């Protein structure tokens, strides 16, 4: 199986080494074609949404329905793993599987649009190096202000009853990326916090930040690692040998003891006013850290990002799952707060939870014509009870996601199957080969020659039609 995946991936797909300023936006295919166990931006967003959606459906559909057996044992409902379809079936026991697919279509594509614009933050020229978009370089007031401003677009569009909510979904995806990055890029986890930061996205001041001229990291606590490159790594990383850092206690004790916020610096990031901001020299600020982050070798060496479980990309890889837990909880909290602010009817409108027959049929027709999810996958599950077994929940999610990735390689031409995500942004004109980005991870995308890929797909579909 692994051999076949590797052959298919080499023949049809390229993995390009491009910037990620946060949790990687979609699943990694690592060396030899094997899937990484890192949790991605898109999974974080989908997990947070599932939790909010299931609570929404429980309150608005399941509880009012006295004939629904879920009412008799709500503990089971909140403790079990649910996909979006699972929750929708429990809320609408009268629907067949075909009706569930029909009526959840608009909602899933709305969520997919949110996740797409979440991922685009790492690729859009306006945001890929914008420090405030990723909570980098200690730009916390700007980071929180950005979330506040983007939220205003979402709120205004919904409260004004706009029928076209593209801008709202775009802004929501962008702000969730920034919100999630806070936990991966800052030292919130290392400060041993027990809950999410409730101030981010509410106030510009979200905590006491280390002074601009204050050292935050030390060379101590980081071990330099060097390894030879495989052929796969030579293709994707384009540098050899690989030099990276394993860091554990490299944040200065005084920063921890005083509970000061800091985040990693990189080279040549942008301020909100289009100025250049780079890691200060001779000051021992923390780096973001990655095999391609040139600032990682500037004292203090190493870095503090928790974007992945791979030390090549994340010096604090051991804290990845804790950062993910905070990011999912923060996503869920933000969506729950939107629901409280809007009320159930307008929240349902934002995500097209109860579409009209006309709207549902329109999406069904688009799927029949080849419309596909970019990032959404129906296999992702979440438990609403986040107090126990959270890491096991994540591992269950990963297993199903990896199975989904496997199906991509085994179904290069999945005719009419919208539920197999493409992980492809090429139709948006995104240059995923841009090597000017400073911190990076390998991304799974469609073939470099997208025109050729489309011709192959069209030809295969035509073959099926002619049979």
TrEMBL record:
Domain VWA7 N-terminal: 108-228, 238-347
InterPro entries (alphabetical): VWA7, VWA7_N
UniProt lineage: Eukaryota, Metazoa, Spiralia, Gnathifera, Rotifera
Protein name per its UniProtKB record: VWA7 N-terminal domain-containing protein
Organism of this sequence: Adineta steineri
Pfam families: VWA7_N
């Amino acid at each position: 199986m692994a051999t076949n995946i590797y052959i298919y991936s080499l023949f049809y797909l390229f993995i390009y080494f491009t910037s990620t300023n946060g949790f990687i936006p979609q699943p990694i295919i690592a060396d030899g074609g094997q899937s990484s166990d890192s949790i991605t931006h898109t999974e974080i967003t989908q997990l947070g949404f599932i939790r909010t959606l299931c609570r929404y459906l429980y309150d608005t559909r399941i509880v009012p329905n006295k004939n629904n057996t879920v009412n008799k044992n709500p503990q089971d409902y909140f403790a079990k793993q649910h996909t979006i379809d699972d929750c929708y079936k429990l809320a609408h026991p009268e629907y067949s599987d075909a009706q569930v697919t029909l009526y959840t279509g608009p909602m899933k594509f709305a969520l997919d649009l949110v996740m797409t614009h979440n991922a685009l933050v790492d690729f859009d020229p306006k945001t890929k190096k914008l420090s405030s978009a990723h909570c980098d370089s200690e730009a916390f007031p700007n980071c929180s202000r950005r979330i506040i401003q983007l939220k205003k677009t979402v709120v205004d569009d919904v409260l004004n009853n706009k029928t076209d909510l593209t801008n709202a979904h775009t802004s929501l995806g962008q702000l969730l990326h920034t919100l999630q990055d806070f936990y991966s890029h800052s030292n919130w986890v290392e400060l041993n916090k027990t809950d999410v930061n409730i101030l981010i996205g509410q106030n510009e001041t979200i905590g006491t930040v280390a002074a601009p001229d204050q050292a935050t990291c030390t060379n101590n606590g980081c071990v330099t690692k060097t390894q030879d490159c495989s052929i796969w790594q030579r293709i994707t990383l384009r540098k050899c040998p690989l030099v990276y850092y394993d860091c554990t206690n490299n944040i200065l004790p005084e920063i921890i003891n005083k509970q000061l916020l800091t985040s990693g610096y990189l080279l040549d990031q942008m301020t909100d006013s289009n100025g250049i901001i780079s890691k200060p020299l001779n000051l021992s600020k923390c780096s973001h850290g990655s095999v391609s982050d040139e600032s990682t070798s500037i004292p203090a060496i190493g870095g503090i990002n928790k974007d992945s479980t791979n030390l090549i990309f994340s010096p604090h890889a051991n804290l990845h799952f804790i950062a993910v837990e905070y990011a999912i909880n923060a996503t869920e909290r933000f969506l729950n707060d939107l629901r409280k602010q809007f009320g159930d009817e307008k929240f349902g409108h934002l995500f097209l939870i109860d579409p009209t027959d006309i709207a549902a049929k329109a999406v069904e027709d688009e799927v029949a014509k080849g419309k596909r999810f970019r990032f959404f996958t129906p296999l992702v599950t979440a438990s609403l009870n986040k107090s126990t077994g959270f890491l096991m929940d994540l591992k269950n999610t990963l297993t199903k996601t990896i199975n989904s990735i496997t199906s991509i390689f085994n179904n290069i031409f999945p005719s009419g199957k919208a539920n197999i995500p493409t992980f492809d942004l090429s139709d948006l004109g995104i240059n995923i080969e841009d090597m000017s980005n400073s911190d990076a991870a390998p991304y799974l995308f469609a073939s470099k020659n997208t025109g050729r890929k489309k011709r192959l797909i069209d030809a295969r579909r035509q073959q099926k039609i002619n049979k």
